[in-house]
Write a structure and sequence with these properties.
- This protein is 75% helix and 0% strand.
- It is mainly α.
- It has a domain of 105 residues.
- 18% of the residues are buried.
């Protein structure tokens, strides 16, 4: 019975991933013995860092509204990115994947820009500046992590 299940799991149509491929992929496994779980945690280190940095900035006297709005927007865009990447990965046509990926990336950028504008318009100019600096710092950390990982799908 387990042999038949293994054969069924290993068959797929062209362009599809099998259940076995998904189970062995580092993207779908959260904790692995070879340290991939720790790498997955480091991949998303920007989220806890932005929350800690915004809290620390507020305690040190930075505009609370701007820091809080920017930290919330960063966490929201990060959650949306993970959800959207899983949704986009299930699309079969490469052209639709590329288009959805570009649209999703621009939508997240506009979400962050909107948070900065809202912080400046609803709060004060200093709130807008605090939000912009918070987003800039979070994006810088995320960018550095992405650069350190290298290109996905290529061996170093």
């Amino acid at each position: 019975m387990s042999e038949q299940l293994a054969r069924t799991a290993s068959r797929s149509l062209p362009g599809q991933t099998t259940i076995a491929d998904q189970a062995s992929s580092a993207e779908y496994s959260s904790v692995r013995a070879d340290g991939a779980g720790a790498l997955a945690l480091l991949r998303h280190i920007d989220v806890p860092l932005v929350v800690i940095a915004a809290s620390l900035a507020i305690v040190l006297g930075a505009p609370a509204f701007g820091c809080a709005i920017a930290a919330a927007a960063w966490v929201l865009q990060s959650v949306l990115a993970q959800t959207d990447r899983r949704w986009i990965a299930r699309r079969r046509e490469p052209g639709s994947r590329i288009g959805l990926d570009v649209a999703e990336s621009f939508a997240r950028i506009w979400l962050l820009a909107g948070a900065i504008v809202v912080a400046g318009a609803v709060g004060s100019r200093s709130d807008g500046l605090a939000a912009a600096l918070t987003v800039f710092a979070a994006y810088s950390v995320a960018f550095a992590v992405r650069l350190s990982r290298g290109r996905q799908g290529f061996e170093r």
